[in-house]
């Protein structure tokens, strides 16, 4: 399984601090003041006429979001909600790794909770699991089978949320999987269940492959394409114009490409962010880290389109139908 060091500078000779430290999210007045000043200075782009969300997040809708964020959104209430469950940090491979750890409040004598690691993706966070946590840790209270009660661990991927970002190049799903495996061992779990979506899907799948004896079950809400699938995609891309090169007949082309244009092209159209984040993260990061309005547009556009591609046709991108304005009410 190997080892790694993602902290600043050289790895120290002394053993890593293995303590698990309680962590509490704070609402800083200084940070709030800085946020409000940046929001007040937002400059908006005039969108194309009748473009809705086809070209991304239009400036007219962004103004509404910023107005709500600046004048109505209550960060203090959101902090209370975030602190609803116990938070912790621990140092693994040089990084302070943040996680939420929720134990069942009540277990019958002799019954053991089932350890479950939930891993988020992008642009998500540990918070996306808040609504399901009560169903997992108190199933009987919600009309579910109390014989299966979970102990839930929701870590933040390094670089996300309150987890420290790697300081070295090369951090990948293998490194994240190894860190989360070490986290589970540190919490006393030699065997556990996994759930992952988006990047969490890749991380949990990798962990299952690295330590199959430790993973009792794996649930995914994103299935990733295999190497064979990638080769097939390349064949399809070439096959439209050079079918003979990849062994496709005219009938194959006639049957295949209407579907291809509808589905695969749609994926390509919505994956530009992936390429820039994978190749030039420092460049896009400089802009997004400096502009909260820009970051909101960048993320909320995904919440719109990835919820329903048809939302691109709506003036508000379907966001007014979402729970954007009720994020401090997880129940």
UniProtKB/TrEMBL annotation:
It catalyses: cis-stilbene oxide + H2O = (1R,2R)-hydrobenzoin; 2-(5Z,8Z,11Z,14Z-eicosatetraenoyl)-glycerol + H2O = glycerol + (5Z,8Z,11Z,14Z)-eicosatetraenoate + H(+); 1-(4-methoxyphenyl)-N-methyl-N-[(3-methyloxetan-3-yl)methyl]methanamine + H2O = 2-{[(4-methoxybenzyl)(methyl)amino]methyl}-2-methylpropane-1,3-diol; 8,9-epoxy-(5Z,11Z,14Z)-eicosatrienoate + H2O = 8,9-dihydroxy-(5Z,11Z,14Z)-eicosatrienoate. Its EC number is 3.3.2.9. It comes from the Eukaryota. One of its GO terms (cellular component) is endoplasmic reticulum membrane. It is a single-pass type III membrane protein. Its main location: endoplasmic reticulum. Residues 20-129 form the Epoxide hydrolase N-terminal domain. It is found in: Endoplasmic reticulum membrane; Microsome membrane. Residues 11-20 have a biased composition (Basic and acidic residues). Keywords: Aromatic hydrocarbons catabolism, Detoxification, Endoplasmic reticulum, Hydrolase, Lipid metabolism, Membrane, Methylation, Microsome, Transmembrane, Transmembrane helix. GO terms for molecular function: cis-stilbene-oxide hydrolase activity. One of its GO terms (biological process) is response to toxic substance. Residues 1-20 are annotated as: Disordered. Biotransformation enzyme that catalyzes the hydrolysis of arene and aliphatic epoxides to less reactive and more water soluble dihydrodiols by the trans addition of water. Belongs to the peptidase S33 family. This is Epoxide hydrolase.
């Amino acid at each position: 399984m190997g080892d790694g060091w993602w902290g600043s500078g050289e790895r120290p000779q002394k053993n890593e601090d293995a303590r698990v430290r309680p962590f509490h999210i704070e609402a800083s007045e200084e940070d709030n003041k800085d946020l409000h000043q940046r929001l007040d200075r937002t400059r908006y782009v005039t969108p194309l006429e009748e473009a809705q969300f086809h070209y991304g997040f239009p400036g007219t809708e962004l103004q509404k979001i910023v107005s709500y964020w600046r004048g109505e959104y209550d960060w203090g209430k959101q902090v209370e909600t975030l602190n609803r469950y116990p938070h912790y940090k621990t140092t693994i491979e040089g990084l302070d790794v943040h996680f939420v750890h929720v134990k069942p409040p009540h277990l019958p004598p002799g019954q053991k909770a089932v350890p479950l690691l939930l891993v988020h993706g992008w642009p998500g966070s540990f918070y996306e699991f808040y609504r399901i946590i009560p169903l997992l840790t108190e199933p009987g209270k919600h009309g579910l089978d109390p014989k299966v009660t979970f102990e839930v661990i929701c870590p933040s991927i390094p670089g996300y949320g309150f987890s420290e970002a790697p300081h070295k190049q090369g951090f990948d799903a293998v490194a994240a999987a190894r860190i989360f495996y070490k986290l589970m061992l540190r919490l006393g779990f030699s065997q556990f269940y996994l759930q992952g979506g988006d990047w969490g899907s890749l991380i949990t799948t990798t962990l299952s492959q690295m330590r199959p004896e430790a993973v009792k079950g794996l649930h995914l809400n994103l299935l990733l394409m295999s190497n064979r699938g990638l080769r097939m995609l390349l064949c399809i891309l070439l096959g439209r114009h050079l079918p003979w090169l990849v062994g496709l007949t005219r009938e194959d082309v006639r049957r295949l490409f209407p579907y291809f244009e509808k589905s695969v092209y749609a994926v390509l159209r919505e994956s530009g962010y992936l390429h820039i984040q994978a190749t030039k993260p420092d460049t896009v990061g400089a802009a997004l880290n400096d502009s909260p309005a820009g970051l909101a547009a960048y993320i909320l556009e995904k919440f719109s389109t990835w919820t329903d591609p048809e939302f691109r046709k709506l003036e508000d991108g379907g966001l007014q139908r979402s729970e954007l304005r009720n994020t401090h009410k997880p129940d």
